[in-house]
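Running this now, will post back.
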Amino acid sequence: MKDILTQIIKTRTLKDAAISFTGTFVNGLLGLAFYILMARNLGPLNFGIFSVAVATLTLITDISDIGTDTGLVRFGGKYLNSDRLKALRFLKLGLKVKLAAWLVVLVLGWLLAPFVSTNILAKGELLLPIRLALVGVGGALLFSFSTHAVKASERFWVWSGLNVGGNLIRLLGVIFLISLMQLNLISGFVVYIAVPFLGFLAGLFFIPSFFKVKNEFGVSKEFFKYNKWVALFVLIVAVSSRLDTYISTRLISLSEVGIYSVAIQLAGIVPQVVFALASVAAPKLAGFDSDIKVKKYLKKLQFFTLGLAAAGLIIGIPLSRVVIPLFYGNQYLGSVAPFAILLVAQAIFLISVPVHTAVFYYFGYPKLFFFIALGHLAIIGGLGVPLIGLYGYMGAAITVLVGNIFNFMVPAVWVVQKFRSRSK
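Update: finished.
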């Protein structure tokens, strides 16, 4: 145990993780402050509408990405040092795919928005926010292009700076609107969707110039062969990970959705830590060439995530009983109970980082997660409707917990069996 801890401390992964975690911590605080101000000033009803609009933006962004972000890290990390020209072709191809996807989303989404808001979600007041979310999809796609491009080159200071800078500008924008007494649902959401466009432009200064590269479609076969399973996986995960919010929107009031959304936002700090850790692990795992090295690395990473998860639960659950009424107001006291359940769910998500990244970036087998995602979707859909119907947002939180347990256990068993079969 002592040797393992010593190796963890000395490894470069810890240094890279420290940079990512510092950025993630600051980014999380800024994002949290933004949502606190929005929640306090909008109230549960309008904050519920805002939260559904944000969920819609992120859902469509994840689907529209069609695995491009994962492909950028996979092939950028693989070729940037060994074949720079080929890596730049992947970058240019990735950007073109994202722009084409946004155009399709904007046209089709604008036409379908009335049907979705009125007939599927049964909340006509969501029409304008959903249409604004379609515009915001473009900024989110472009910003994620910049962040994943710098992630592929392991420039974690830049990656952290882009994320922190974006949330800082969002927070300052909301404070400015409050000072003018102009903060409302629409103005706050416009600030939210505008900032990623600026982040994309800033990110271009730190990415190797690729605009003049020719024959980017020459790498499309390799790109899409890998990405097709990632895209299918992300499509299902994007739906299942937000299905609790949409079922809640349909079955309970928007004010209750607002209360549940506060719990989601607070527990959402953990996924930011997960993504920071994965951003460090992904390019390293993509570059390993032996099972021995990978097992050693994964062992250290697993100890690290277990410690973080335990610390988060011990501190987070008791603290929420003070933080929520103090910062959000007594109108959000109902968020405390679902937050505790969601935090446990996110702790399980955190400890799944080693096996998830190993499947994606070392074994290069994203196909597995397509089938896992199908199972997860069945769990969320199958449990969500009856549990939310009976217990409201508490039922939604329980559904998320069960889904995250499933998402951890299946790939963990697969990775263990894979190593055993290769060692024979």
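The first helix runs from residue 2 to 10. More later if anyone needs it.
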